[in-house]
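The authors assume throughout that readers already know how a fold can be written as discrete tokens. A single example would do more here than another paragraph of explanation. An entry of this sort, consisting of the sequence and the corresponding backbone structure tokens, reads as follows:
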Amino acid sequence: MKRILSAIVAIPLLWLFILKGGALLFTLLVMAVAVIALTEYYPLVDDTADLFGPLPLLGYASSLAMVGIAHWVANPWGVLLGVVLLNIPLGGFFLLSRFEQDPKVVKHLLSHVFGLLYIPMVLASVVRLRIAPEDGVMWIFTLLVTVAACDTGAFYAGTYLGKRKLCPSVSPGKTIEGFMGGMGAALLAGFLMKGLFLPGLGWFSCLLLFPLAGAVGPLGDLFESAMKRASGIKDSGHIIPGHGGILDRIDALLFVAPLFYFFMILSA
């Protein structure tokens, strides 16, 4: 019931943000998502993480800057990479003075840099999808519908047909049958969205994009599940009743969004 009520509230709000809010409001929403996701990411990779320590604060500031750069800079990828690289000496400055008390400071820095690549760098591609001069809104909706269809198809195929475990050491409930059902649902949903809203996307590209999206979406879910299992944390957060944290909701999207951006560039 919590999941249903959350969806009833969240889906219309998301629709308004994307369709009626304009590109800037959407970017501000992505900024908030990026920062919240980072607050959930740090405890997954470091059980001693202080969410208001120097390194996380640097991460939040960098995350806001990166999503903003994706919105305002015409060709942002070099600048975005520069922000990530700048975090190495800045993070090292904060951490190396603590080496005597915490010998894992290098691991903390590596996890921090990866977190910037994993969350705000990928979400930058979502912003670039939205501000595309042609069909940006429809690319975002197609991305979201494809990911949701994959998740739904995998759930029902796994529930009613699932017998063979996909990756039991990480997620015992996922099955190969569910994985195939998710790919099929992503393909069907993608073709429907292409036919209705993305006429510029070629059919051959669809035959590559949507099955790939259906394949890598569950991998994103498994990747976050592996982090949670390694850290002993059940849900990344509790911000969405019945759904867990923001990172629990966008784990598949973080793997699928770069694919959509790549194919959007190819079809331009």
Summary: The first helix runs from residue 2 to 19. The radius of gyration is 19 Å.
